[in-house]
Structures are given as C-alpha cells and as structure tokens.
Write a structure and sequence with these properties.
Elements: E1 5-8, H1 17-27, E2 31-34, H2 43-52, E3 56-60, H3 72-92, E4 96-99, H4 112-131, E5 136-140, H5 153-163, E6 168-173, H6 174-180, H7 184-191, E7 195-200, H8 215-224, E8 231-233, H9 251-274
Parallel strand pairs: 1-2, 1-8, 2-3, 4-5, 5-6, 6-7, 7-8
Amino acid sequence: MHRKIGACSWILGNASDQQIAESWQTAGLNGVEYNPIRGAANASATKIVFDDHGLSAFSLTPPDADLSSPDASIRKAAIDIYFWLIDFASAVGSPIISCHGLVGRIAPITSQREEDQNLIEAVAIITERAKKTEINVVFEVLNRYETHQIRTASEALDLITKVSQPNLSVLLDSYHMNIEEPKPADAIQRAGKHLGLYHMADSNREAPGRGHINFASQLRALDHINYQGPIILEINAPGSNPFSPIKGLGYQENVISQLVESVRFLENYSTEQAA
C-alpha cells in the first residue's frame, strides 16, 4: 500500500516555516507534523507556506505541558495550552493534535494512581473541546526514559476506554516501541482501529535501515489493520541529547539527507510488496 509520508518539524531545530517547507519538498514528503511555538507562530501564515509547497499539515506536536501534575494550577495551564493547540489546528488545517505527558518526568510526584486519574480527566477535557471543532486527538505512547505514564499500546488502549471519547486514538512510534514492546508489530495489531498515527525512526532514532528495527513486520501490520493515516518520520541527526535536534555543525543537512533516505526506503518497500 502506498502511503503519504510526513515528518515532524522539530527535527530541523529552529528552522523557519519556509526552510521546513523547502526541505520537506526536496525530500519528497507529502506533509508535516508541525510543532507550533505558542505566542510566536501564525497559523494562517504557516498554512500559506505549506500550501505553496504542496504540503498538508498532517498533525500538530504539542508544547511540553504537565497534564497529570498534582498541582491543579499546573494542570489548568497545561489544558489551556492544548485548547490553544486545538484552535491552531483548526486555523492551519490539521485534523489531528498529538497529546502526551510532560516529557522527561519519569516518576510521580504524589502517587501513580492519583496522577493517572489526573491524566484521564485532563485528556477527557481536551478531547471534549477538540470534538467541537472536529479535531482528533492521538495520545502518543512514549518510553520509560521520557514518561512514567502510558508506555505501551495496551496502556494507551486502557486510557481510551477510560476517557471514552470517539475522537481519541493512539499514536505508536517505532523508536519508543523498540524499548517498551516485546513485539512492536503485535502492538500495532493490538491497537487496530484505534491507531490514529504512526511515527517512524530506527532504534538509534535515525532513518529506517540504520538500526536494528524490523520495519517490514511493522509495515505489514499497518496494512493488516488497514491503517489509513500517513507515516510520520521523527528521525534525528546522530548525537547524544535525545531531547534536542541540534547536534552540531551540519545537523540540518544530515536530517534532510536522512529524510530523502527514509522516503527511498518506504518507496522500495512499496515496490517490493507490489511485485
């Protein structure tokens, strides 16, 4: 199955919308998972740039916000950020926003039970608001080095059951699954109709084929569940800090080269399947 391919904008660091659009067009991508900066980004202007380069806004990456904090004022501020993201999604033409906990908080401040309940309640509020403007929410499953909540497909499906909103689904990422799932392809099968978005990066967070992940099994699983969404590349230039895309001189050129390589990898897979 031929799929549309996008990439997360944050992987190009502090690049402008114009630089992102030109780079994505050069790499042969169809769209962007955009990371807007609150208070600085103009959705209408961003949409014009993407439209001019034939790119769709597939989804939006959220700013960091703590939805499960035991401090009610912090949770409210986090929910307000997501309300802003929903409005931005409507203006830029994105049908999906991504949602997750505060990246890097890997232990509860109070208790796991209390913070899990806080997360459920916050996500319910966000999805209810998103539903009013026909925006879908995907909850991203991270790994143990980035979160203390929702690290497997099964945990994400449990969250969906508890939130009970029709516009909530799961975002699975090959890089995170490589750490947390015994069999990532089985996790995709388990998510099934609830898989709303798929992120791709190899075990070293570089282009597929540069690490040890079995992508053929994951792509077959996507086909088997009839996943209709795009593949979103979330690769990084080589380097030590997993929370920053800036890896030294020439990192942007490295990322663009890896995007081209990733598109070729996926095209070759599609050709092989069609043969």
